[in-house]
């Protein structure tokens, strides 16, 4: 018999989560254009019991929804061909009981709030951990979830944000420095350092 995962809120001591085995429909759609992150997350979520489908763009995400209406979804806010909010809206239109998590960079919190209004149940900052995504997807929406066990340090958040912008600028140091309003040499020093813990 499978052991039920129980997450306790430090404030109330109440069960705020279910186990995926309690759900009849375990389908999970992951929409993210970062291939390595998406595939890693898909493998982790399959091990947790979800039946995962992947899409790398708004277009393929919407096409997938037409064929298979997911019970759960993890959608990146910024996709190569548009905004993840379009996918969230399509999922809600096809299955308004879907539990959707929006993934966002730290600079996009206002847009993430807009995602909640579109029908997402929560948002998490990238790079999100599979355990945190599972907790958010399975949390009782009536109760407040406990904070993440190991949140990223402020230095790590800054490092991740700088590297994400660098990748989005096609690894162009000058363009990245301009967009981040940083001196080019300062940016180069940060890019050559190892990621902080």
What is the number of helices? 8
Shape: globular
Distance between the termini: 37 Å
Question: How would you sum up the major sheet?
Answer: 5 strands, parallel
Q: What class, by secondary structure content?
A: alpha/beta
Helicity range: 40-55%
Q: What is the C-level CATH assignment of the largest domain?
A: Alpha Beta
Under CATH, the topology of the largest domain is which?
Answer: Rossmann fold
Unreliable stretches (pLDDT < 50, length at least 5) are 1-16
Query: Under the CATH scheme, which architecture of the largest domain would be assigned?
Result: 3-Layer(aba) Sandwich
Number of domains: 2
Instruction: List the strand order in the largest sheet.
Output: 2-1-3-6-7
Specify the CATH homologous superfamily of the largest domain: Response regulator
Element-by-element helix/strand order: EHEHEEEHEHEHHHH
The average pLDDT score comes to: 79
Q: What's the alpha carbon Rg, rounded to whole Å?
A: 18 Å
Task: Explain what this protein looks like in three dimensions.
It is a single chain. By secondary structure, the chain is of the alpha/beta class. The protein folds into 2 domains: 20-138, 3-Layer(aba) Sandwich (Rossmann fold), CATH 3.40.50.2300; 154-192, Arc Repressor Mutant, subunit A (Orthogonal Bundle). Helix content is 43%, strand content 15%. The protein has 8 helices and 7 strands. It has helices spanning 35-47, 58-67, 84-94, 109-118, 130-138, 154-168, 173-180, 184-192; strands spanning 27-31, 51-55, 72-76, 78-79, 82-83, 99-104, 122-125. The strands form 2 sheets. Strands 2-1-3-6-7 form a 5-stranded parallel beta sheet, with helices on both faces. A two-stranded antiparallel sheet has the order 4-5. Helix 1 links the parallel strand 1 and strand 2. The longest helix has 15 residues, at 154-168. The chain is globular. Residues 1-16 have low confidence and may be disordered.
């Amino acid at each position: 018999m499978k052991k039920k995962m129980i997450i306790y809120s430090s404030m109330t001591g109440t069960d705020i989560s279910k186990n995926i085995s309690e759900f009849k429909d375990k389908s999970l759609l992951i929409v993210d254009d970062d291939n390595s992150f998406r595939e890693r997350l898909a493998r982790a979520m399959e091990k947790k019991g979800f039946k995962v489908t992947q899409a790398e763009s708004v277009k393929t995400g919407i096409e997938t929804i037409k064929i298979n209406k997911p019970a759960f979804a993890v959608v990146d806010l910024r996709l190569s061909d548009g905004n993840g909010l379009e996918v969230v809206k399509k999922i809600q239109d096809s299955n308004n009981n879907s539990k959707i998590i929006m993934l966002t960079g730290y600079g996009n919190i206002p847009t993430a709030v807009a995602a909640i209004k579109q029908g997402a149940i929560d948002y998490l900052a990238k790079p999100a951990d599979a355990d945190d995504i599972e907790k958010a997807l399975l949390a009782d929406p009536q109760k407040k979830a406990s904070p993440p066990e190991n949140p990223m340090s402020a230095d790590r958040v800054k490092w991740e944000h700088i590297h994400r912008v660098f990748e989005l600028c096609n690894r162009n140091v000058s363009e990245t420095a301009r967009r981040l309003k940083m001196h080019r040499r300062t940016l180069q020093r940060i890019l050559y350092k190892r990621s902080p813990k």
